[in-house]
Amino acid sequence: MSPATPAPEPGGAALELLVHGVGGASPQSMLDDPRTVRVTGDETAAVHRRADDLDAEDHPDRYAAGPVPEAYVWSHLTSGDGARALWLLLLPFMVVNLAHWMRPPAAGRPGLVRLYGVLVRLLALTLTVLLTAAVCEVALDLTAWQCAGTAGCADGRAWLGFLAADRGGWWSGPGRRLALAAALPTALVGLLWYLSRRTWSAYEAQRPPTDDTPTVPVPPTDPRPALGRPGFWYGRRLVARLRAAHTAVGLLTVAAALAAAPAHRDTGALAATGLALRAALVACAALVLWSVCGRGRSERRLDQRVESAVFIRLPTVAAALLVLTLVHTAWDRPGWTSTGTLPGNTVFGALTLAQGGLVVALGAVALLLQRPRRDPRTALAGLGGPATAVLACALGGVMSGGVAQWVADRLGGSADPAPPIGPPVLLSWQASAIPVLLLLLLAPAALLGVRTALATRRLRAAVEADYADESPDPVRTRQIAASRARASLTDSAPVLVGVVAGTALLLGAVSVVGAWAGGEVPGRAFADAHPAVAGLATTTQALGSWMIGFGFLLFVTWGRRAYRDASARRTIGILWDVGTFWPRAAHPFAPPCYAERAVPDLTWRMRSWTGHTGGRLVISGHSQGSVLAAAAVWQLPSATRARVALLTYGSPLERLYGRWFPAYFGPDALRGLHRAVHCWTNLHRATDPIGGPVRVPAADGRPGVDAPALRDPVAYGRTRAHPLPEPVLGHSDYQADPAFAERRAALLDRLPPALPRQRADEPTDQGSSGRSSG
Prior knowledge:
Blueprint: E1 14-19, H1 27-31, E2 36-41, E3 46-50, E4 68-73, H2 91-101, H3 110-147, H4 151-154, H5 174-181, H6 183-204, H7 236-260, H8 268-294, H9 309-312, H10 314-330, H11 344-370, H12 384-412, H13 425-440, H14 442-466, H15 474-487, H16 493-518, H17 522-525, H18 531-562, H19 566-581, H20 595-613, E5 616-622, H21 624-635, H22 638-641, E6 644-649, H23 653-660, H24 662-665, H25 667-676, E7 679-683, H26 738-750
Parallel strand pairs: 1-4, 1-5, 5-6, 6-7
Antiparallel strand pairs: 2-3, 3-4
């Protein structure tokens, strides 16, 4: 349905810059016209107009009835070919990066803020070590050390024949087998480095306007919020440093796994060489820790400096040490055979303990940060960041443990009798935790179901009150009430995340204790217990292994579908787009941040158009587009903001971002945005599961931001104006409501009249306005 046309309004040129939300949109659907033209931008993100509106600025009298619509389409920043589904495999990295941005606000406490950032970056580093160690476990320990060294395993696999210890080939020595198998984790680290570097250049390397951006840091007393700082959307220097550190630590993990294998066999010169290599690895690891802890984000300036060569060359140093370790490990050692397992149990146990300690410290810092001023709307009382960090560690542990257990089952399950091929005990315990975790989650899921049913019954009276002029219809009332009740489930997300995080932390502790106390996998640890207990432990272990294999396939399948099917993308779109909205401040291998391209795009367009035409502009953002619009408005200079109105609808600014990211979208930040922008209106519905009110009241003579909740559906029953039943729209089609055009017209009326338009030979405020005449 086309938006209603407002009454003619004075004031010269006016532009409506439309920004779509999750799931993507085409310019044809946004502009309600099959004939659209790209005004400025490229195939990845661009501004479009209707073909008939290209010369709108030259004929303002034709557009006296309303603003000229423009559509900013950014969907290709987060969707595209099916290969991007592989980004879902980097989910733990994305989640830990979210934890960085979830810290509570901390005015006047820079030391605690820096400590919070350091702890999250260290947690992110442990995830890189965990991923690399898991691949080393599969390639080095399970395949090259255990399976290739066991006749019952290697004989049944032709692809392992040249590595089999009993065949006496050149590659059959344990050291050479390990050196060859190290190619897999090394290639993975190299791939992650390449993807991080490539995606940075393709998506995030977009400089914001620089004509009035300070080259020196703005003072700490600067009133601008974090998202309005000149360097917020340009984190090249930190990403470069973190990319070097994580690449180096990945290579060092491979080298450490290789160096530990022959340590007990080396004598004489080999022992001295091995000791020197291990000392060099420790020294390089210390330098990596220094680089990660020593610098955070530089947001108060547009930092275009190149990172120090000492840190940028860390991957080169680590690669050189890896090559030396490969030569040392592959050296022939007579009588050396591969028995037992590599010392992975200690490594994974130490990683789990380190992550647990870092999470506890992060929780303590978060509590200290939010103590002076606690907002009751903040998710988990300010502990959203630590809880999210727990989820990242749990995802990494379950994925690594499950994959290792699944590979071990495949390698050891075909021979008869099956050889004793198995991963470290701790990984088996972590894989066994998957069905237990899912079983424990049934209770809160059932509770939410009951709560929704009760809310549906309770909301019937409110629905009938909203449509008091209509004849009651129990079926219709129940349908609307159920939509409102389901939409309210979003507000229960903090409780669910807290339960999952607490359960994961508890199961992680149980896994460490069980692995270290008994030294056996769950099935064997309870072998002497009651038959029912022993059977349950064995079943849980097998079920966990099966579920991780099935889950991996489901993960990739749904990932590909989410990037090709719009309906599937909408299902998970909000979570994915929230995760990739934020810059890579903690983990450089996380999926790329689309906002570091989109926000500068919007900022440049608003500045160039208003500077060239002197006209009025309303930036109109739906869903995630409202977050991009708010971030872009924060980046505008005050002279431009005076000519810009903000219209948000279906917006998660407070409901999601304000609760989970209070330092950046909390009540103080949103009230500051209200004061900064000339005028702002927010539209919302009670049936919307994503958007909601922004809860910014009237202040300083300005009206409140939130308009009254829109009725959804527009008509309760059949009327002359609506002869067919109207659907419950929920999160979609806000522009179909007549109130949308009315509120947009009211915003434009509140903006100051248009300024005289600059001549074509006069410079604009930034020197470029794109390809259009505007």
